[in-house]
Amino acid sequence: FTRKIWPNTYRFYAREIGEASLQKVKIEQSLQKIINDKELVLHYQPVIDLMTGKIIGVEALVRWRHPELGLIPPDKFVPLAIESGSIVKIGKWVLHEACRQAKSWQDAGLEPAFIAVNLSAIELDQLQLINHVAEALHATGLDPSKLELEINESVLMQDIDGSTRILNELKKMGVKIVMDNFGTGYSSLNHLRRLPIDTIKIGQPLVQDIASKSDSSVIITAIIALARNLGMQIRAEGVQSQTQLDFLKQANCHHVQGFLFTPPLSAEHFLPLIEQRKTGTFS
Ligand code: C2E
Ligand code: MG
Ligand code: MG
């Protein structure tokens, strides 16, 4: 019996690994031409205001519409794009496309009020970043205060002085800064007040543990109090259950995002949602 199972299992894994590395090679090769070929697409996840239940903003999340492999999530190609440096070009496209989409929703009189774009460590280090942001805003006509840039906690904390310098440059332009995935890396709370950030976003792992681990509720309560005392906005991501939502509401969190409301959607699928929510609310 086992002799029958094991060879099959082995062949199954060998095939899986073979396919996985083949995919990796294919992805690396095609990264070079994905922008020219218009294979990138942005999906949008609403950010909900807990006071009003309305969509106050949206996070843009990149996907790759691969002709053979289908829709590839960022976790599968962004790390490769970072390795090869093509993330800079991709990021430039993302900025422009996100600003263009936000402006066109606003021109149509629709929510959301702001759009958030994710930046990788490499992009933050590039001198061109300031130009890319300025170009995207100028070309699309989006008001700078409507653009938020999300940067991971770990990236910002790695080099506080360097981060502060670049963030100050960005803030001079009028854009807002979000510290993404807070609570998933190691942060010195003392450094929080040195960084010019507007919003702290509590990462999914902490939010997931709200009901199951009492210490994560205590930590979240403390983070919310800290952020509010520092004059920052506080947002929770990865909200999947009513229990998590109820907790975040009573803990005075400003904004939430998560599958409980909706996963990220294509612009086409997002439009009916915001049209329908124009007068209605989520919670
Ligand atoms: P992130 O910025 O922390 O985005 C949150 C991720 O959680 C997204 O995954 C989103 O689809 C997912 N998510 C949202 N709500 C829920 C929920 O309730 N439950 C669960 N389990 N997941 C939820 P996604 O779109 O696959 O993006 C993954 C990461 O890829 C992002 O994490 C971000 O770091 C990176 N990324 C995405 N777009 C870009 C981009 O344009 N540029 C760069 N540099 N990185 C990007
Ligand atoms: Mg993000
Ligand atoms: Mg995040």
Automatic annotation (TrEMBL):
It comes from the Bacteria. Transmembrane segments: none annotated. Coiled coil: none annotated. Residues 24-278 form the EAL domain. This is Response regulator receiver modulated diguanylate cyclase/phosphodiesterase. It comes from Nitrosomonas eutropha. The chain holds residues 292 to 574 of 574 of the full protein.
